[in-house]
Design goal:
This protein is an alpha/beta fold. The strands form 2 sheets. Strands 1, 2, 3, 4, 5, 6, 7, 8 and 9 form a 9-stranded mixed β-sheet that branches. Strands 10-11 form a two-stranded antiparallel ribbon. The protein starts with 13 loop residues before the first strand and ends in a 5-residue tail after the last helix.
Amino acid sequence: MSTAFNTADSAPLVSVIIPVYKVEDYLAECVDSVINQTYRNLEIILVDDGSPDGCGAMCDAYAAQDDRVRVIHRPNGGLSAARNSGMDIATGEFITFLDSDDWMYRGTIEGYMQCFAKHPELDLVESRIYVTSSGEPCNVGEYIGDPQAEDRLLTGAELIRNFCMDTYPISAPAAWNKCYRRVLVEEHRFIEGRVWEDLEFQLRLYPYVKYYLRWNQVNYYYREDREGAITERKPSLIIPKLVDSYENLKQIVVDLEDQIARGETKSGGISIEEHRIYVISRLVDLLVAPVYCDLRIRSVCSQLIPVLSPYVKFIAMRPYMSTSRLKVLARRIMIFSLPFYMHLYVPLVSMYLNVKRSLGMHR
């Protein structure tokens, strides 16, 4: 990638916000990947979220070595609170996030800035990620996809519709593989006290996006299922996280319904009613297929029934739209009988999909 910004005067300031907690083994790789970016005009905000190990001292050492590094030491409040603390002091024209057990390709931020320079109307760019559990060779730095589609911009209305309605959405429900224009996010914050907050953040934010671009370069190395991480998939840890996710989306729906009751009609660039339907659609998707849960295991299904039940009741009398006939049917069956859905319908559909895959009909 050629260097488009080679002086501080011509380069917008980019704030990189990195929450830090119990990641001694990964922090150096993470921070070094930012310090060594080809794009130099950076504000690197390390938020020590009360980490009990040596991470706080490591953050201070980086600040002593590089004047672009700013450190916040705060009591432990969780990932959302740490990100919010970073956003509160960020001064860059653009903001991007990086989790402290991950790292980014050295040309990532320069590439983001080239996208914004080429399309001044943009206020959000998203890039591809490499997931450690994918089983594929690491391809960070590689461009994938169709170069002819590189300049296809989406409005916020198109983005949130795709994000919530399409079977294969273009955008990932994560904050860290994106670069935001700061004016887009300065009135938004991550919900605190719950996990899996990224999806909630995007669902509230996307209607306010003017234009969005998917940049098909793999820029982010995402370390999944690390012990002690939010993504850790031990069965005993998944259900409380699911509840957080369901509560996050339910609250958005309730807030939008309160706005409708007050006579408000618009949510960013879409109607509040459209916004409500999109969030309900995403909530139904998460109920139909709870993430990280193997519904082939009967005991898992039995544990999920009382957890899902109040949310199934919540969506039962609310409007729902989907491009998937299977999801429409699944919702109806869940509402009719959640035990029937879990113990009979899901295994039958799983068998049906396995047959389709074996015949090469998985799409």
